[in-house]
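pls design
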C-alpha cells in the first residue's frame, strides 16, 4: 500500500496484476471509504480468463473480493456497485452469479450498457465503493 497523507493507494493485491503499469490503483482508501477500480474477468497478467460471460463475471467478483480483502474489508462492507455490461441480456445472469458469490448482501446497484471494455472480448466490469470497517 502507498500512502499519500490521508489517502492510501492500494496497488499490491495478491492474484491481481500490477495496476501501476497502467497508471491506477486497485483501490483508494480515503475518509473511511474504499473506492475500488473497475474489476474485470482478467488474470494477474491482464489476460481475459475466458470468453464465456459466467467465467468473466465470477472472476470480476472474486477480484473485487481480493481487493476488498487487501483493504481489510469484505463484501459485507460494500455500499455501492456499478456493473458495466457489453450486452444487457447478461444482466440477469450477473445478478445470479453475484448472489452465488456474495450471498444475500444487498448493495445500491447500477447496471450500465457499454459499447466496449478495455480489452477485446471483455464482457463485464464491476466498480464498487465500500466502507472501511471500524470507521
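designed seq:
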Amino acid at each position: 500500500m502507498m500512502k499519500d497523507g490521508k489517502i492510501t493507494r492500494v496497488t499490491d493485491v495478491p492474484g491481481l496484476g500490477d495496476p501501476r503499469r497502467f497508471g491506477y490503483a486497485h483501490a483508494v482508501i480515503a475518509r473511511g471509504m474504499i473506492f475500488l477500480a473497475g474489476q474485470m474477468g482478467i488474470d494477474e497478467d491482464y489476460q481475459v480468463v475466458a470468453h464465456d460471460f459466467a467465467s468473466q463475471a465470477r472472476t470480476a467478483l472474486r477480484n473485487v473480493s481480493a481487493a476488498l480483502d487487501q483493504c481489510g474489508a469484505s463484501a459485507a462492507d460494500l455500499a455501492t456497485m456499478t456493473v458495466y455490461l457489453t450486452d444487457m441480456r447478461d444482466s440477469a445472469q450477473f445478478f445470479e452469479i453475484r448472489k452465488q458469490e456474495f450471498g444475500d448482501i444487498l448493495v445500491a446497484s447500477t447496471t450500465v450498457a457499454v459499447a466496449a471494455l478495455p480489452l477485446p472480448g471483455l464482457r463485464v466490469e464491476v466498480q464498487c465503493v465500500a466502507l472501511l470497517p471500524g470507521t
